[in-house]
Design a protein that fits this description.
α1 packs parallel to α2 and α3 runs parallel beside α5. It is built from seven helices and nine strands. α2 links the parallel β1 and β2. The strands form four sheets. A three-stranded parallel beta sheet has the order 1-2-7, with helices on both faces. The protein is of the alpha/beta class. It has one domain: Rossmann fold (3-Layer(aba) Sandwich), CATH 3.40.50.720. The protein is about 40% helix and about 15% strand.
Length: about 220
């Protein structure tokens, strides 16, 4: 929370001093466990301010509010990118998210562990597509938030099947009940209409292609 709040405040001050374009890296967690699907930038979110994830969520929500305040009252040239799940080479092995966990388990020919029943959905954007979207936002004059993510929604259970298919792991997934945080979002899918219209951006790399580009990095890091 301190880094998200004070860091944003400090760097906005630097941008003001140097009359610089300022891009805030925000997150889809702004939307919480959404009641709207897919999520548009106009949606205010469904967030528990005292939940298990609230420190991160509220830091990002505050950072967006502060960024817009600097734009409105100090006339800073700001932009806000709301980043959805992103993956690719150079992720940490202990990242803790689904794709790094699944890839490592599949490469070891282990069962893939899924928390909950696997029906929760995510939308995974390959890192090259994300970077392309951020650069286009940076070079634009857009100030309001813009979703950057892949709108192809997939359940976590189906993601496990895709990872096993690409790697060739024959082990099934196992489901661990009662491990999901109470406010873990059940569905996550970006509406990228604004990115497509304003930035002429949309993702080019599908999940299979992205995994094929990502897995060699994990093989190297795991020394397999």
């Amino acid at each position: 929370m301190k880094a998200g709040a004070l860091g944003t405040h400090n760097t906005l001050g630097v941008a003001r001093d140097h009359n610089a374009r300022y891009i805030l890296a925000s997150t889809s967690e702004i939307y919480g466990d959404p009641l709207e699907h897919p999520q548009r930038e106009s949606y205010w979110g469904h967030v528990d301010p005292i939940g298990l994830r609230s420190v991160y969520d509220e830091a990002k929500r505050f950072a967006e509010a502060l960024t817009m305040a600097y734009h409105r009252y100090h006339h800073i040239n700001t932009g806000i990118v709301r980043i959805f799940n992103t993956y690719g080479p150079r992720m940490r092995l202990d990242d803790g998210r689904a794709i790094p966990n699944f890839i490592q388990q599949a490469l070891r020919n282990e069962e893939l562990t899924i928390y909950g029943d696997g029906s929760q959905t995510r939308s995974f954007c390959y890192v090259d597509d994300l970077v392309d979207g951020i650069i286009k936002l940076l070079n634009s004059e857009e100030h309001d938030p813009v979703n950057i993510g892949n709108p192809d929604e997939i359940t976590v259970a189906d993601l496990a099947k895709v990872v096993n298919e690409v790697i060739g792991n024959q082990k099934e997934a196992v489901f661990l009940k009662g491990k999901v945080a109470g406010d873990d979002p059940l569905r996550r899918q970006p509406d990228i209409t604004r990115a497509s219209t304003i930035l002429n951006w949309e993702p080019k790399i599908n999940l299979h292609q992205g995994l094929e580009k990502t897995i060699p990095y994990f093989i190297k890091k795991m020394k397999l």
